[in-house]
Amino acid sequence: xxxxxxxxxxxxxxxxxxxxxxxxxxxxxxxxxxxxxxxxxxxxxxxxxxxxxxxxxxxxxxxxxxxxxxxxxxxxxxxxxxxxxxxxxxxxxxxxxxxxxxxxxxxxxxx
Length: 111
Fold this sequence. Notes:
The chain is mainly alpha-helical. The chain has one domain (34-111). 79% of the residues lie in helices and 0% in strands. It has helices spanning 2-23, 34-52, 59-82, 87-109. The longest helix is centred in the middle third of the chain and has 24 residues, at 59-82. 19% of the residues are buried.
């Protein structure tokens, strides 16, 4: 009787483990979901913009930051284009493009 109870308990445990293993959903890409990618890119763009505000930067550094910022903005807009029904992503794209323009203007002003 004890062997039968242990055996049934093990079977229930294995079935439970199998069901929970199947319930997991893999991320859509190696980089995570598009919302996670947008969060990461937005943080990178904000960090780039903050660095550009430092007055002691050389023109070379300012222009490199502008290039980085605009590359990040392009990535943000690419994600937004893949989901045209989400207005929030369109607004995020537009905001990132404005930051790109600001970074480029900072580059051009120091030349």
